[in-house]
Amino acid sequence: MRWRWCGATASRSGRRSTKVEWKRRSGAHFVDATGEVDLGNIDYMKREAEGWELGGDWGDVVIVAQTDPRFLLDDSAQGD
């Protein structure tokens, strides 16, 4: 899975999730400057007892994994 943050592309490195629990899902989507579908930002990411909770325009989700997530930003000019 790839994300865009402040125009940079990011990906989550090889950590396997053991459980993904959606608390709320939204069908909203937007179109970014390149014409691609954009589901919105990750507005928050916080550690919870059972895993990591993330939320944004797209919904709220708890991700449980054996290790903490690691996000890698692509520093190329185009984010590809």
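^ that was protein a. below is b, sequence first then the tokens
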Amino acid sequence: MRPGDCDQPEQLQTSLGGVDALVIVPGMALPKESIQQHRNVIDAARAADMKKLVTTGLGRMGLAGASSLESCSCGIKMEDRFRASMT
């Protein structure tokens, strides 16, 4: 387990150095913030030459202020970023 703040990309890059695998569990941020947080984690994982990156879609369910459409859109954007990072 490593410390990391999804809103601080530089900290993530340091924290993920030497890590081979990472599981991302979405937090409770609203979709706009959540998208940037996931971008930060995915980019840091890629920079750390991460071998395995796993994510769940369990966060944000039932979050006040976020529609299910917003949550779905957020998940799609995260998956797109993840796929792009693998090429």
